Amino acid sequence: MSAFNNLPAAPVAPKKPVTDTRHGITRTDDYAWLRADNWQAMFRDPSILDPEIRKHLEAENAYMSAAMADTKELQKTLFAEMRGRIKEDDSSVPMKDGAFAYGTFYVTGGEQPRYFRIPRDGNTKDETIRHVLLDGDREAEGKAYFRLAGIDHSSDHSRGVWGYDDKGSEYFTLKVRDLSTGEDLPDLIENTGGGGAWAPDGKSFFYTVLDENHRPSKIFHHVIGTPQKDDRLVYEEKDPGFFMSVGGSLLDDFIYIDIHDHETSEYRLLTTKDLTAEPQLVAERVTGLEYSMTEGGDVFYILTNADGAKDFKIMEAPVEAPQKQNWREVVPHRSGTLILNHMAYARHLVWLQRREGLPEIVIRDRKTGEEHAIAFAEEAYSLGLSGAAEYDTDVIRFSYSSMTTPSQLFDYDMATRRRTLLKTQEVPSGHNPDDYVTRRVFAPSWDGVEVPITLLYRKDTPLDGSAPCLLYGYGAYGITIPAGFNTNCLSLVDRGFVYAIAHIRGGKDKGFQWYEDGKMAKKTNTFKDFIAAADYLNQEKFTSYANMIAEGGSAGGMLMGAVANMAPEKFKGIIAAVPFVDVLNTMLDDTLPLTPPEWPEWGNPIESAEFYNIIAGYSPYDNVDAKSYPAILALGGLTDPRVTYWEPAKWVARLREKTTGAAPILMKTNMDAGHAGASGRFQRLEEIAFEYAFALKVAGKM
């Protein structure tokens, strides 16, 4: 019997056919009208949304509310559990920088972080010496949505530039704060990417501006006390296919302009000795050449895939001549060992790498060349490298966790090789790691490759196929889903679920080739790997098809849409958060924020008939057909600039039209948020509780 009974009639989106012909192929889109013609303006002012579209989205929300009405108490219970695992008045361990140490903390009941500093060698546990620089809760008062971009302090520690987005559209407004008084200066910088890079004297900073299509297309230089209209244009990127950001070096010698898409990089450097100079090109963009830079005093260290170094190598070049012809190898390419990022300090070079599917931190003595690694013994774990805020230091910071081990924060002395445990994540409601099992298993995919799966379940969970399972996947942009500690999923695991992460192709879990084998023309490997993971979990009786619920968001939402079309019978339910499901239409619309920069990931169907057909072959929206779909929950955000709200809206309309089954197709649109969902930490927990309530209801575990 279905868990969803006695539902009112579901909304039916009217059909308004729009035809489009490309490469001699004509397609009809019945629901194209759900894309607001004024979407650019609407992201800045949601009140101007077309009334017919708003009425439809609100009708979908009402239907969803009716379908989930009997889970309200469960949602409250789940929320209370998740909240109970959070130390509400938690604080970070401050990071030393000059005369101060900087950190964040929360207050009990607070949604937003508060940024503070203390004297450099002050007692980190003494709350009386905290000087609050920015109170997120106070700034968020009266706003339905509020997201901080953090606060960046100037090198002389006198001022900070901070940013916020109060619509969910990711257009950030910047303000400048006097850090001694806490007062904001009159400066107001709008439509930015968030954050700024300070000039050494603390009198000016650099920032990116987003154009009307939400692309970071220009870098400006702002002098404190002058209006934004007078800011000097430092660099403009004319190619809409490239992202751009600006940052500073630890030594305050350079401002970095980082220009890149998903496969090509270009850096330009501005010396802080002459802030009016033209940025210096390091290595011109060549399709497929990636590099990133960090300063090492008299040299730059360059992480690159040049000369066939698929898993990357580290080069160095003189500061006065960093051009590519002067690059010299320092850390060679090792096939199968993917270098993820690198940092340089006065006496050490540090990098995070992934080998045999597991992360490790490597430290190299710059003088002797001697190397050593920091690694751990668990089957699956996560490492985070935060480094240091100062250049002349031997101490870096890193974090460690696993699916069963709460996060631990360490300071590590690179010279003595001594690690100091600074903090262990507290779970106020209690957590006994011995009650749980974490495993790394491997599922054979369609072509014989082995797909890693990380599992978490209670020791007393029966492994006879009867346990429900939440199988999570992403598989895009080379992003690796870490096997880290997640207190939220314990609410499922403690109710008998197996929680599984499928490390499918499209990520970099098994090296750069793993990424390349899940993009462009090979994109369907991502979907087949996920189905192979489901097959393995069913075969090995960790769960069964009848008890399996799939979850993914954004590009992982595309995955959800694809597997729903390819193997609907293997899933009891599917949760698709801000799902990128209208792939072909989006990649054909070069006005959308992410379309040109995304062509290296998916292919350009405007210019290429081959990629038009490839994308058309898997695009979830375009491949919805008459079949029995499982229960589906789609989640969207009205002001989302990454995956626009109309993607899940169109997809749900077509699913509901085509499905031959009785399982409900639900959609929830957050009318006050964008891609990241709710902005407050507890508001976000409410959203997760809602998703988990859907999973529990579908699994019959309410």
Mean pLDDT over the full residue set: 94
Radius of gyration: 25 Å
With strands numbered from the N-terminus, the spatial order across the biggest sheet is 31-32-34-33-35-36-37-38
Q: Based on Cα principal axes, name the global outline.
A: globular
Major beta-sheet overview: 8 strands, mixed
| Beta-strand content bin | 25-35%
Structural class: alpha+beta
Helical segment count: 13
Low-pLDDT segments, ≥5 res: none
Question: Alpha-carbon distance between the termini?
Answer: 14 Å
Helical fraction = 10-25%
Q: How many E strands?
A: 38
Keywords: Hydrolase, Protease, Serine protease
InterPro entries: AB_hydrolase_fold, Pept_S9_AS, Pept_S9A_N, Peptidase_S9_cat, Peptidase_S9A, Serine_Peptidase_S9A
Domain Peptidase S9 prolyl oligopeptidase catalytic: 485-701
Organism: Sinorhizobium psoraleae
